[in-house]
Specification:
It is built from four helices and no strands. By secondary structure, it is mainly α. The longest helix is centred in the middle third of the chain and has 32 residues.
Length: 120
């Protein structure tokens, strides 16, 4: 996916702003400025970097909505695996063996929980 030129220029502008804020942080530390001032500048740099990520992700979502034919097909499970796992409790939920884990012995009355056609 190629980003539009206006998005790229906006992202680069935002990243340059973050770069300036990080350099300011370095100089503030070197000068021995107040902790409160440093934390304020750090917060601003962090927020600016978050905005870069948000802008990048939002432009990708817009692209996917505008160009649905170029999206990847979603991964689907086979009918057997989805039928076997749907509404079926885990081994631990069936046996109550939370402490012993999945290799715990299963009593004879618990064999009825095996669904035919599912698993080994």
């Amino acid at each position: 996916m190629k980003l539009p030129d206006d998005v790229v220029s906006d992202l680069r502008r935002r990243l340059r702003r973050v770069e300036g804020q990080v350099h300011a942080l370095e100089s503030m530390l070197a000068e021995g400025r107040e902790c409160r001032e440093i934390v304020t500048q750090l917060s601003a740099a962090n927020k600016a970097l978050e905005q870069v990520g948000f802008r990048l992700i939002s432009s990708g979502l817009v692209y996917c909505l505008e160009h649905p034919a170029t999206r990847r097909r979603p991964v689907t499970r086979s009918k057997k695996s989805s039928a076997c796992s749907r509404n079926w409790p885990s081994h631990r939920a069936r046996t109550g063996n939370y402490a012993r884990g999945p290799r715990a012995r299963i009593d004879a009355d618990q064999v009825r929980y095996h669904r035919p056609g599912c698993g080994p």
